[in-house]
Amino acid sequence: MLWLRNVLVAPFGLAGEGESTAEKIGIFPLQSESDRELIAGFNDKHLDFRISVLAEAGFIFLATWVHPHNVGGRLYLAAIMPFHVLIVRDALRRVGASQDSKKE
Prior knowledge:
This protein has 104 residues and is α+β, with helices and mostly antiparallel strands. It has helices at 2-9, 71-103, and strands spanning 24-25, 28-33, 37-43, 47-56, 59-68.
């Protein structure tokens, strides 16, 4: 899905995988890290994006923040939102499954 996204947005000059950096979480550059939380994301001309993964009291929380800059950002966000929800749910399901397998 990310390959398709990158192909579709390339003509508009949008970033494919964020800034080039040594530390990444998936395709997203790591912005900050503490004992409990990782924040990754990047700024692009159409929107700024951050994802937070927080571990607290044995639970994993995931939150995303998007700040569109223009109509293009709002249209892009509207187009990807259904896929975004599915991807986030799948990621949390996989983290939960991973945690369950560690308990066994």
